């Protein structure tokens, strides 16, 4: 039986492990945490991410938990529309999912033939000679025909195989929260919660997760928001961070103040935004009868400005699953992972380029630069977002 080790039980690792196990691989999933945990916030899934999940056979689960993003435009802090809200055709509409719901759907897709080992922190990888590739965690070694490194931005496997790629700060910090439906501001009743507001080094995006039970099987409705600000993470406790956020976003268009008011310190998740520079030179490393591949943030961590990180991880998983579906260990499997590398690197590079353009707009600082940015913002932002959305949407799963 063909064997695979997947390192990391984030959403990329879970999607890949499930896909391989369902197509007959014997899979061992290694996770450093003491249990496989979902994140506390939410994600926007764009049409490419949705297509990838469908290709992975997880579409039904998604239909039950996704809330369509609906009409949502982009405003300046003074309320001026940069991109007017307009209806989106159903097949092109992004959906918002609670991470716990997505996690449950991915866990359900793992099946029961998979070996999950928690509390295993991978610290090295072996790719020499004719032996099967292996990862090690202290004294333990896990060898398999295929090793999938889905161990996130700080990937230990990537650090070893692609040391040219470093993790650097993107120059900004993100705060996220899901306000549960029963605490959502009253002012939102009957009005859309969603939309994006873009200011000088600051950005605020909100999306509705529906009311309890209103989005199919999900009981995790509410309102999700993400605030991004240029600069380093704040060392203060969450209550003080929340006070700062309320101050920074004071006077911004409704419902931002109401959302921040309804947020409690425990809802808040602060994260430094980081990325890989440069991207790894390869996503596939042949070893013995197979090799090691990089997937998800381990392969292409990027700022969240276009909301594409998880979508690309699902694309990676769908592409890898299709590439190795019929590949037997030996030349066929090595060729299959080379094919994965050929497909995925240009795609990730394109999305990273688009994301960096958005980073540049977001981080413009200084009075003169800002005036120029404000003048150009009305033209640049719609074009940038439009072309990023269409590049993202172009992806089709391999046959
Ligand atoms: C503010 C913000 C908003 C975002 N919004 C969106 C969005 O709307 N849409 C979207 O598509 N993307 C979004 N993203 C990006 C998305 O969250 C990530 O791209 C995605 O979660 C990456 O998944 P992953 O499985 O590759 O990595 P991770 O989620 O980081 O998972 C890695 C897993 O590996 C484990 N691990 C790490 N090291 C080891 C080790 N040495 N041994 C064993 N296990 C290990 C970790 O514990 C973890 O479980 C956002 C990101 C941020 C920061």
UniProtKB/TrEMBL annotation:
Oxidoreductase keyword on record: yes
This protein's UniProt keywords: Monooxygenase, Oxidoreductase
Domain of life: Bacteria
SUPFAM superfamilies, per the entry: FAD/NAD(P)-binding domain
MF term (GO), any: monooxygenase activity
Stretches assigned to the FAD-binding domain: 4-162, 259-355
InterPro entries on file: FAD-bd, FAD-dep_Monooxygenase_BioMet, FAD/NAD-bd_sf
Keyword Oxidoreductase: yes
Protein name according to UniProt: Monooxygenase
